[in-house]
Predict the structure.
Amino acid sequence: MNLNEIKQLIDLVNSSDLQETIIEEGEFKITLRRSLPHEAVAVACAPASPAPAVPQVAAPAAAAETVVTAQASGLTDVCSPIVGTFYQASSPDTAPFVSVGDSVKKGDILCIIEAMKLMNEIEAEISGTVAEVLVENGQPIEYDQPLFRIKP
Amino acid sequence: MNEVSQQILGRLSSASGFLSGAALSREFGMTRSAVWKHIMMLRRGGYGIEALSGRGYRLSSMTGTPSGPEVARFLNTSAFAREMVWEEELVSTNTTARVLAGKGAAEGLVVSADRQTGGRGRLGRSWESAPGVNIHCSLVLRPRVPLQRIPQLTLLVAVAIHKAIASLLPDLSAAIKWPNDIYSDGRKLAGVLCEMESEADCAHFVVVGIGINVNQESFPPHLSQSATSLLLASGRIASRPQLLAEIFNHFEPLYHEWCEVDDLAFVLDYLERHAWLKDREVEVSRLHGKIAGRVSGLSALGELRVVESDGTVHLIGSGEATLKQ
């Protein structure tokens, strides 16, 4: 699927009532999820095969859309900088770094995203209150996927 | 053994013959009796140091610990492990390296410890660590590449460890278990755990933690089926400082190539050739349920390719693949 086809797909989903669309074509998979009425956001675009051109083209579009979403609702999204697995705590026996309602300061650790045994601690970029945790412990995460919503 | 003692050891190690007490006291800005105290401390630490009146001091034997002066003898890197912090005991070399990196430590700094009291594996799992026989170290990196590529570092380190082991023990059969472990005869020899601190689009630093069972003679019963050492697998004692140096001798050029070229192709062949999971049936835990299938190889980005019995292909980039029971 090329960039034009993805754009057409986003338009198509935007003009429909679909909340979420997953399309798999051979080893390529794209997920379009609506986060606000009539605004489809490409949150996930996973190449299942070596096809780096597609996610690189699609990712900036997704990032831009995410910012729009966050501004519209007065909340700031914390997005994943890498593809990986989401962990809410440093080990299975310890409490989550943060939960809904917690106040966080800029630089506080919010979660860990693991990929190939590399642990990436995600820090809060602003101070505020955790309004939403958007993903589950152990969930696979795509590039730029929103993880938390912070109320500044 | 304090930092000054280690510096004096490094000076003695790089000298070709005797060094006079007067020369050492000038170089280190201390009295000759202070030099003598450091020599005594080094001797208590196990180093053989001859002292001849009129000629000075000469290093006659090392202890075989993976510390700065001992590792340096085997290094041919430009930056990696040229600066080393050595401690007899640390809670975890990764934790210490992260603190130092946070204070601005340069790329290439290595923290090495003879014993770890709280070594960590993935997600806080403990790593059993005997004193005086194994390698526990952490390297500070500051890669300037897109964040999404940085997890690939684990694969490069695994290749470097595998090559280093092969250079010391060419007859030992070892394999790389995707993405971060080295196995021999189905048992774990070594592991890698990387940690990154980053902002939205750039890494402040990455700490590469390496643990290797080198000369450990036995394991407690609950580990004896799952863990092994170079000694147990090869029957030979290996030099820890030499092995540590060889890892960084191999890793530094791989790292520089990877920083310059946005492509893993230059190590994929090696990873495939020495892959422990290749063509095996594995299970990968997912949030809801499991993926079960046969490993057919790696993707261009280094992900594990698992093919289900119905032909569905999964590319695994995180989590753990275990052999199907």
Remarks:
- DSSP finds nine helices and 14 strands in chain B.
- The longest strand of chain B covers residues 187-198.
